[in-house]
Amino acid sequence: xxxxxxxxxxxxxxxxxxxxxxxxxxxxxxxxxxxxxxxxxxxxxxxxxxxxxxxxxxxxxxxxxxxxxxxxxxxxxxxxxxxxxxxxx
Length: 89
Description:
By secondary structure, this protein is mostly helical.
């Protein structure tokens, strides 16, 4: 099997996590990336979609407000969750 090179943009925080792991585990970055990608793609194929939890969820302020309304969140959501949902606004 012939290897190919793939280029991708990642966040600084993800790069830092990767760098720490490869130093600690003594593995090459290419090996880590290929194993992680294979693991992720296999999970996407084998697990039902409702069980896949994505590491980040970004919604607009409008969408976030609609989600809170649908959940009846205004009165029943604890303050810490509302503050978390507002983070970055």
